[in-house]
Design brief:
The complex is a heterodimer of chains A (114) and B (111). With 114 residues, chain A is mostly beta strands. Chain A contains no helices and eleven strands. In chain A, the strands form two sheets. In chain A, strands 2, 4, 5, 6, 9, 10 and 11 form a seven-stranded mixed β-sheet that branches. In chain A, strands 1-3-8-7 form a four-stranded antiparallel β-sheet, with no helix packed on it. The relative contact order of chain A is 0.33. The mean pLDDT of chain A is 93. With 111 residues, chain B is mainly beta. The model of chain B has no long low-confidence stretch (mean pLDDT 92). Classes of the chains: A mainly beta (114), B mainly beta (111). The interface between A and B is medium-sized, with 24 and 25 residues.
Amino acid sequence: DADVTQTPRNRITKTGKRIMLECSQTKGHDRMYWYRQDPGLGLRLIYYSFDVKDINKGEISDGYSVSRQAQAKFSLSLESAIPNQTALYFCATSDPSPGEDTQYFGPGTRLTVL
Amino acid sequence: GQQLNQSPQSMFIQEGEDVSMNCTSSSIFNTWLWYKQDPGEGPVLLIALYKAGELTSNGRLTAQFGITRKDSFLNISASIPSDVGIYFCAGSTGANSKLTFGKGITLSVRP
């Protein structure tokens, strides 16, 4: 079984709809991240969480919100989706041990906003 | 802010050739990571580098952490068709585990 899972894998929605993307992990990591990927722009950080009570904005948080329901679960919401939020979304996790900066990624969710 | 530069955006090589990719920055990083992303999948870690000057291999892949801590390279030897994908470099200052990613290089391998 995959260590980091994301649901759904694909979603098509309409402008103005509320969308939630979910991420679960079995790696036992405290730290979780949400990124979006656009062609030619690489990975950009939306939000990150270092533990259940910690939520931090990344470089492109406008239009998004997150919820850390448990150590293993981190959800990303688009309150009112717009077409320029069409992208690939990735969840990642990491271990807080010193020197352990490696992040492990889920398979991604392809979101299309019409 | 910190940026990692990867160029060119795309590379085309013949099967069996070696290829080298650079990642440079104007800032110092304490950790360098190389990821590969297959179509339709998330990035997968290839090699992690933690010390300046470190040279690490993983099969046909070799990566080095630059002495200045401002660059890294990844070399793929004897390329095969399954090497196709997007290769990202990423760096961390270690301060808060956040990674800075390059924009990636799309590698194509001609049989």
